[in-house]
């Protein structure tokens, strides 16, 4: 059985990652691709602890927690799903670490060292949007954590995502940056699905895993 494709979705808080992830999964399923949606921090005990305490635990300590959750997530969920032939789409991954943890004062090299043995994605998608669009989407949805409540974050976050794009590319990962300011989630999803088809040739006709049916 051919291994599935590993796709990650990153971008500023409120840009539309979760919404787009749902649209991507729908689009891939419609095309017959078995797909699993997942997220970081993960739904494991460690992931739930990380999410619950990310407002209180800061800097290097949060970076280590997020990385520990990632290694478990890869071992327990991502790799097994890929091995079953499922495409895995993950809401937040390495680029988020490079941005969020640097916002929190952790040097990039420390983050790269901490993540040196992770599974790299087949495609890393970074969603962007104009500052005003992000502000509007965030206020529509409501802030979820301290990084989304700090008014100084959006400008620094945007610059750090531009840097993360180069860093992830430097690791040999194909990076697709999509400006979502004037697009719908389904149009963004179609771009991602079509990039995946271009990368893999036949992602839409991968092996069928009944457990991954919608
Ligand atoms: N083009 C778009 N793409 C994705 N989300 C959008 C778009 N336009 C508006 N939104 C809205 O932005 C809000 C934030 O989306 P969400 O997926 O929760 O963001 P994130 O997961 O990046 O924090 C949601 O209310 C969503 O409906
Ligand atoms: C994936 C990831 C998350 N986090 C933190 C940021 C947030 O405090 C928390 C959850 O992020 P987020 O996905 O933005 O939450 P939500 O899905 O509720 O919008 O995890 C990191 O610090 N680094 C990371 O690499």
UniProtKB/TrEMBL annotation:
- Catalytic reactions on record: dTMP + ATP = dTDP + ADP
Q: Which GO terms describe its molecular function?
A: dTMP kinase activity
Q: Which residues form the Thymidylate kinase-like domain?
A: 9-148
Described purpose of this protein according to its UniProt entry = Phosphorylation of dTMP to form dTDP in both de novo and salvage pathways of dTTP synthesis.
Q: What is the lineage of its organism?
A: Bacteria, Bacillati, Actinomycetota, Actinomycetes, Kitasatosporales
Keyword entries, A-Z: ATP-binding, Kinase, Nucleotide biosynthesis, Nucleotide-binding, Transferase
Q: SUPFAM superfamilies from the entry? A: P-loop containing nucleoside triphosphate hydrolases (SSF52540)
Which Gene3D superfamilies does this one have? Answer: P-loop containing nucleotide triphosphate hydrolases
According to UniProt, the name of this protein is Thymidylate kinase
Keyword Thylakoid part of the UniProt annotation: no
Query: Which top-level enzyme class is recorded in the Swiss-Prot or TrEMBL entry?
Result: transferase
